[in-house]
UniProtKB/TrEMBL annotation, chain A:
Its main location: mitochondrion. Pfam families: Ribosomal_L3. GO terms for molecular function: structural constituent of ribosome. This is Large ribosomal subunit protein uL3m. GO terms for cellular component: mitochondrial large ribosomal subunit. Keywords: Mitochondrion, Ribonucleoprotein, Ribosomal protein, Transit peptide. Residues 195-223 are annotated as: Disordered. InterPro entries: Ribosomal_uL3 (IPR000597), Ribosomal_uL3_bac/org-type (IPR019927), Ribosomal_uL3_CS (IPR019926), Transl_B-barrel_sf (IPR009000). Residues 197-212 have a biased composition (Polar residues).
From TrEMBL, chain B:
This is Ribosomal protein L19. Keywords: Ribonucleoprotein, Ribosomal protein. One of its GO terms (biological process) is translation. It holds the Pfam family Ribosomal_L19. GO terms for cellular component: mitochondrial large ribosomal subunit. PANTHER family: LARGE RIBOSOMAL SUBUNIT PROTEIN BL19M, RIBOSOMAL PROTEIN L19. InterPro entries: Ribosomal_bL19, Ribosomal_bL19_sf, Translation_prot_SH3-like_sf. It comes from Coemansia erecta. One of its GO terms (molecular function) is structural constituent of ribosome. It comes from the Eukaryota. Belongs to the bacterial ribosomal protein bL19 family.
Length: 315, 171
């Protein structure tokens, strides 16, 4: 329903119209075909219109925007039961909405998010034009995030660490550490050859590469080659702590890649037996807005909850 | 009047004491986030001045050294502060990692070598006490004591622990 309100079809096509009967649909398709035959093909593009930044009600189907953060390093903390939790610190440096992108699907909008700062002399002219057009300072990194139309933010909105709720789950995407040219045992987990029994020079080799019948190697055969340096997504990492003054979030466990690199953080999409946000949490939707959202202390730590894991079960 | 009002049943904990501003030093022009975080975490965890024991640049008398006889008291869980376990041993290694600092104690109890690793700033570790300074150790890590203990684990302070373990078994 809201898509009809928020979206405006930017083309001459009447694709947004709702057609009830089959006859109407048939007429519509024939008329469209005729139209397309005459006119040069033009795709229907949708773009949500947002005028002002204001809080909205979060629904389980809503999809908030993700952010680009910087991996700062790993440390440890203790939860309320005294259990040590290894954590990675991610910092949000000048994260802003750079532009709202047009999409072909009215149910999915896209936001372009920028992170960091870059000197103007180091920015190419086309990119500088892009930043000027939206009235944004040059950013070091840009990335797009798909969202639902109710979570659209106006251009220039700053996203802070308070966008995340302690205890929620996030997915983190970043290029992994480059491992260089590696053999099949390390790269694909092959078993290798035997250590003895007359084995010669093939302790770590891959063995056969296929049958004699096709007289060729099938595409996609796992072989030695470059390993690492590719995007890896680690899913369902709990946010352990949020610091609004340092603009940092603490994420449980490790995150791919090296320190100080840009990584993408978004709300978790795989929610098996889990809720995205902890019970009783006020969801900052579409994001945390200073002045409008309820104020929170500088640092908030997630409550793990449940029973004390250090007390042995008595039965 | 906003719709996203924090409910009374809080899902989060606010760490105490609260610092309104990050603990940066005036000489730091662009503060290193990890250092600030570590400083704050140690300020919070340092309840009895134990951070001085793990300072890298302190006189050997003031800090914990490999070879010292150390007594550690730990809570078994956070729910019941009365259930406590204590352990005495020779410190054979210290791993200085800021808030993640840990050390290993070794002792011989009932003819069995026992090693325990303690996290220095864990909220479960209630007390760390140096009973006796070590003498004649020239290395940072004393793993050689596993093979060549000599008379290291026959010290009076360590024997007490072995005796108490023996008496506990009798009762």
């Amino acid at each position: 329903m809201f898509s009809a309100l928020l979206y405006s079809a930017r083309s001459t096509g009447a694709a947004g119209r709702i057609l009830s009967s089959t006859t109407q649909r048939a007429q519509f398709s024939t008329s469209m075909l005729a139209l397309r035959a005459k006119l040069p093909q033009e795709k229907v593009r949708y773009m949500p219109e947002v005028s002002e930044l204001k809080l909205a009600d979060y629904t389980p189907k809503s999809k908030r925007t993700g952010v680009i953060a910087r991996k700062k390093g790993m440390t440890a903390m203790w939860d309320e039961w005294g259990v040590r939790v290894p954590v990675t610190v991610l910092q949000l440096e000048n994260v802003q909405v750079v532009s709202i992108l047009k999409t072909s699907n009215p149910a999915l909008a896209r936001l372009q998010i920028g992170c960091g700062t870059r000197k103007e002399k180091n920015v190419t002219k086309p990119m500088m034009g892009h930043f000027r057009a939206h009235g944004i300072e040059p950013k070091a990194k840009l990335f797009e995030f798909p969202i639902t139309p109710d979570a659209v933010l106006p251009v220039g909105t700053e996203i802070t660490a308070a966008h995340f709720v302690p205890g929620q789950l996030v997915d983190v995407t970043a290029p992994s550490l480059g491992k260089g040219f590696q053999g099949v045992m390390k790269r694909w987990g092959f078993g290798g050859g035997p250590a003895s029994h007359g084995n010669s020079l093939s302790h770590r080799s891959l063995g056969s590469t296929g049958n004699i019948n096709p007289a060729r190697v099938y595409p996609g055969k796992k072989m030695p080659g470059r390993m690492g340096g590719k995007n890896v997504t680690v899913m369902r990492l709990p946010v352990m702590k949020v610091d609004t003054a340092l603009n940092c979030i603490w994420v449980k466990g490790s995150v791919p890649g090296y320190d100080d690199q840009f990584i993408k953080v978004r709300d978790s999409i795989k929610l098996i037996k889990h809720r995205l946000f902890p019970d009783g949490a006020a969801v900052p939707f579409p994001t945390y807005i200073a002045g409008q959202s309820a104020e929170q202390p500088r640092e908030v730590v997630a409550k793990v909850g449940g029973q004390d894991p250090l007390i042995p079960a008595s039965d | 009047m906003s719709r996203n009002v924090a409910s009374s049943q809080q899902h989060f904990i606010v760490p105490q004491p609260q610092f309104d501003q990050p603990l940066t030093k005036p000489e730091e022009k662009r503060p290193n986030v990890m250092k600030v975080i570590e400083r704050e975490a140690i300020m919070r965890a340092d309840i009895d001045g134990r951070s001085k024991l793990f300072a890298r640049r302190a006189a050997p008398k003031a800090r914990l050294c490999a070879g010292d006889v150390v007594f550690v008291e730990t809570q078994n869980n956070m729910s019941d502060s009365s259930s406590v376990t204590s352990f005495t041993g020779v410190c054979i290694a210290i791993y200085r990692r800021g808030i993640d600092t840990s050390f290993i104690l070794r002792n011989v109890i009932q003819k069995t070598g026992v090693e325990m690793r303690f996290m220095a700033y864990s909220p479960l570790v209630k007390r760390i006490e140096v009973l006796q300074k070590g003498e004649g150790f020239r290395r940072a890590k004393l793993f050689y004591l596993r093979e060549n203990p000599g008379k290291t684990f026959q010290l009076k302070a360590l024997k007490k622990m072995a005796q108490s373990a023996a008496t506990a078994k009798k009762h």
